[in-house]
Design goal:
Layout lengths: L2 H35 L9 H12 L6 H22 L6 E6 L5 H10 L7 E6 L2 H7 L7 E8 L3 E2 L1 H9 L3 E9 L3 E4 L10 E4 L1 H6 L1 H4 L6 E4 L3 H11 L4 E5 L1 H7 L2 E4 L9 E8 L9 E7 L6 H11 L4 E8 L7 E8 L5 H13 L2 E8 L5
Parallel strand pairs: 1-2, 1-3, 7-8, 7-9
Antiparallel strand pairs: 3-4, 3-11, 5-11, 6-9, 6-10, 12-14, 12-15, 13-14
Helix pairs in contact: 1-3, 2-3, 11-12
């Protein structure tokens, strides 16, 4: 075969690809109509990974794995955009998060739902974590985004308590790498600083750095990005804030010191919450329970995981108000609630618990 033969072969393949592409988009439109008729969201976080995994299994040449993934992520991006266009009458997703633009919750929201969905998403920012749950009472609000734990400072107790007390469920999770920057007004130098604002969690994560400056006044504030915004509004070189590079870019401040968190592998795990009952398509389960304050009670729970060979990935305790020395236990483990062994284990756990609530069955973010 010469070059023209190869080109002719490419032309033939392209013709087949275009025909298949048209068929795929027609099916995508049918799916869009189904979602519209059944009031379903366009975006489903686990579907892409399922498709990619299946596509890779079809390949005979392992060297094409990465390229095939790139191709299909592009195709699915086009497909979602096409669905969005066809469903112009379909409701926009309303998603609430705590903070202001540039907050880590805002970053997690965008990374979870995807940049290409921004036109189909109405972001609503509120002041507190309690406000996120309050807004979810509105039928027009689809999801909330909340931090649940940090790799440096551990679980966020207030969010755990709010999650248990409300009638809400975890629909997904997103891990965001957190790099804190000390930010100041234009032209400020580190020797000008007298006051530093940030969220208490960020201050804890940067404690070792801040200890080098004992004369600074450290002031907790309700959000990292809100702190950055405040410093911008003050316009005073003696004030600084700890926040993200995204917040720095939004509010046009100077970097006084980069990456000041003591743990350079600093991640915050965010949860996506909704009013809907837990799905049955995930590979990670979260629940909360309490047990009697007696010898062996917690062991009886833990041995269920061991006996059934279920991998527990996290356990967190929170005190029960008005019941000294009794606790709620938040447990994350691998599995799907359709699996027989998981169903059996959950029933066993319920029997051993004085309180039990399933918080979600969702796709784990293993990035």
């Amino acid at each position: 075969m010469d070059l023209s033969d190869y080109r002719n072969r490419i032309d033939e393949i392209d013709k087949e690809i275009v025909q298949l592409f048209e068929g795929r988009m027609e099916t995508s439109e049918a799916i869009a109509n189904y979602k519209k008729d059944n009031n379903l969201p366009i975006f489903y976080s686990g579907r892409e990974d399922q498709v990619i995994k299946k596509v890779k299994s079809y390949l005979k040449n392992p060297q094409l794995m990465e390229s095939a993934e790139d191709l299909y992520r592009c195709i699915m991006k086009i497909s979602r955009a096409y669905q969005q266009k066809k469903m112009s009458a379909f409701k926009t997703l309303n998603i609430v998060y705590q903070g202001v633009p540039g907050a880590y919750s805002d970053i997690a929201l965008t990374e979870f739902f995807g940049e290409n969905f921004e036109n189909g998403i109405n972001k609503i920012n509120v002041k507190t974590w309690q406000d996120v749950f309050a807004y979810l009472e509105d039928e027009k609000i689809n999801y909330g985004v909340l931090p649940i734990e940090n790799s440096s400072t551990g679980g966020i107790a207030e969010v755990y308590d709010l999650l248990r007390n409300g009638n809400y469920y975890i629909a997904g999770e997103k891990k965001v790498k957190v790099s804190h920057y000390l930010l100041g007004t234009k032209g400020a130098k580190i020797e000008d600083i007298k006051y530093v604002y940030s969220h208490p969690q960020a201050l804890l994560q940067c404690e070792k750095f801040l200890n080098n400056f004992p004369d600074w006044s450290i002031i907790p504030y309700n959000n990292t990005a809100a702190s950055v915004k405040l410093i911008k509004e003050k316009g005073d070189k003696s004030f600084a804030a700890i926040g993200s590079i995204e917040a720095k870019n939004i509010y046009d401040l100077d970097i006084l010191s980069p990456n000041i968190n003591f743990n350079k592998n600093n991640y915050t795990r965010f949860i996506i919450i909704s009013k809907d009952e837990p799905s049955k398509s995930g590979d990670k389960i979260s629940l909360v329970l309490s047990i009697k304050n007696e010898s062996g009670a917690l062991f009886n729970i833990l041995k269920i995981f061991s006996r059934n060979n279920i991998n527990m990935v996290k356990i967190e305790s929170r005190p029960i108000i008005r019941k000294p020395w009794e606790y709620f236990f938040y447990i994350d483990f691998e599995g799907n609630i359709n699996q027989d062994i998981i169903k059996l284990s959950i029933e066993e756990i319920k029997k051993e618990s004085s309180y039990f609530k399933l918080l979600g069955n969702y796709k784990a973010d293993n990035s």
